[in-house]
Fold this sequence. Notes:
Elements: H1 15-31, H2 37-42, H3 46-49, H4 52-66, H5 85-96, H6 101-119, H7 122-129, H8 138-153, H9 160-180, H10 196-226, H11 245-248, H12 253-262, H13 272-280, H14 287-290, H15 297-305
Helix pairs in contact: 4-5, 5-6, 5-8, 6-8, 8-9, 9-10, 10-15
Amino acid sequence: MLSHDAHLLYGLEDSAKLESTIDRLTIHLEQLQVSDPMEEAELPKKELFLSKANIIRFVNAFFDNSNHSNCFVYKGSFNVNTASTQLLLAILLLGATCISPEDAATAEKFSERFEYSVFESPEFQRLLYQENHPTPSRENIQLVQAAMLTIVLRPSTGQLETERRIRIQRVPALVSAVRLLNLTQVLNDTVLDGEKANLDEYIRRETLVRIMAWVYLLDAHCVIFSNSPPQFKIAEADFGLPRHDMIFKTTGLPDLNELISNADLQGPPLSLRSVVQRLMDGKPAGIEELLPQVDSLFALFLVLSGK
C-alpha cells in the first residue's frame, strides 16, 4: 500500500474512474487472440495483473524509471482514465518490468499478444493504408506512442524470432507511420510566456518532435547494432531538435515560471539537418558554437547519431 498521496498522480486518485478504466483494460486483454489454448491456460489472471494496486505501482514505475532519458510521453497531462487503452497497457507492461522479476515475467506473458494487438490493429492499419494522409490527432499520436513503447518492451524477451520481427516488420511500419503523419518536418516554435494555452501548444508540438526524434534514433540503432539498412535519409531530417528536457518534464505552470526565467527559450528551433549541415560544411561550425542551441541530452544524442 502506498504510504502517501504523492504517488496518486496521473488520475490514479479517482477511484470510481479507475474502476471503469480497469474494466476497459480487462475487456481489451480478453479480446486479444490466442492461437494456442495451452497458452491461454498459462496466462496470469487478468484481474490480478490489473488490480488497482498494480496499476498504481506500474504507472508510477514507468514514469519514475522508464520515462527519463529521451522521453516522449508528457507526464504532466497523462491521465490513466483518458489515455487510449493501447497506450495505457503499454505503459503498464513496461512499468511492470521495472518492479520485480516476477512482475516482469508476468508482463512478458502478455507482451506478444499485445504487440500484435497494436501493430495489427484496425487503427494502426488504417494509419498506414488509408487513402488520405492521416493527421497527428490525439488518437493517432497515442497509437504511435503505444507502438514505440511496444518496441521497447519486446526485445527484452531475448527471443531471436521476436527481435527479427521487430527489426524487419515493426520498425519499418513505425517509420512509415511517422512519415505519413508528416513528423519529419515538425518543429516546436511555440514561445512560452507562462500562459497555459501556450504551454499546452508547446507540449503538443514538443511531443511530436520527440516522437520523431526517438524513431530516428531507433533507426540509427538498428543500422549500427543490427546492420540494418537505414530507413531515413538525412534529407528527411527537417524535424526540430528536442528542447529543454526539464520543461518537458514539468507537471504544470507552477513549475514552469522558474524554468522559463533560467532558460533561453526565444531562439528559433533548429532542425537536425541544419545542425548536421553546419557540422559538415566546408568551414564547419565548432561544436562549442552549437552546444548552446543543442539544449537537451536528447538533442545531443540525436546530433551524434546524425546519418
